[in-house]
Amino acid sequence: MKREYSLAHLTVLGCAPPEMIYIASLTGYDYVSIRPIYMGLPGEPNYDLANNKEMYKLTKTALKETGIKVNDIELARIFDGMDVKKYEPAFEVAAELGAKGMISSVWTPNREYATEKFIELCDLAKQYNLDVNLEFVTWADLSTLKEAKEFLKTVNRENVGIMIDTLHFNRSRVNLEELDNIPKEWFNFAHICDGPAEIPTNKEGLIHTGRDERLYVGEGAIDIASIINRMPEDVVLSIELPHIQRVKDFGYTEHARRCIETAKKYFGEHPRA
């Protein structure tokens, strides 16, 4: 089975969705993973398609002209004081653009509250035929595969999934065998990138690599093949690989091309058993 690849938002952070789609088409991707939910982070562009009609129109045109599809949107965070309904315009856009699902993560230590809001999120997403894929992030309040599995079992909704990011998987020190105990239907797509052998011991160090300096697949020390090959064959591989210096050196298009070329080379050398 031919692996399918998606170009993730953080890999080409400075590119609006239309430009991102054309870059994905030029460099050999099948999908894009966009961020129409504005998070207000320092230096983050606002790609809120629901409130930017011209950008939305250009995004639809780019999808039609290239044949690229939208795999997922991000990021429907769970945090204290949130209003799940505020995500609905982005869900509507996602459905109109043909997205399969979204990414969510938990940023509150109050597990009962997080469960309540996640259930509300899943029920709202279901109205738009979207799956809600929970990502455990090394520096978030839900940071391990075990926690994610227990959380989703409590949530008990049909449209849930677990989204594995190979960097967070490695840095949370998850055992490979834990993947064998996850329901196969929970695996819809995965984020892939590589990273150095040394795992930072503080939050700042974890964030720096995660947002600014991930490595091309096969360039670092993460056993990516052993992680991905434990998932179903049809899992989409979304390359989330921000690297500020390389973007400065090569530009976004060349960086995106190197991302997918190194990934294809790596998986060609590490086929499924």
UniProtKB/TrEMBL annotation:
InterPro entries with a match to the protein in the record: IolE/XylAMocC-like (IPR050312), Xyl_isomerase-like_sf (IPR036237), Xyl_isomerase-like_TIM-brl (IPR013022)
Single GO term (MF): isomerase activity
Isomerase keyword on record: yes
SUPFAM superfamilies named among the record's database cross-references: Xylose isomerase-like
Keywords: Isomerase
All copies of domain Xylose isomerase-like TIM barrel, residue ranges: 25-244
A Pfam family annotated for this UniProt entry: AP_endonuc_2
Protein name: Sugar phosphate isomerase/epimerase
Organism: Sedimentibacter acidaminivorans
Biological classification of the source: Bacteria, Bacillati, Bacillota, Tissierellia, Sedimentibacter
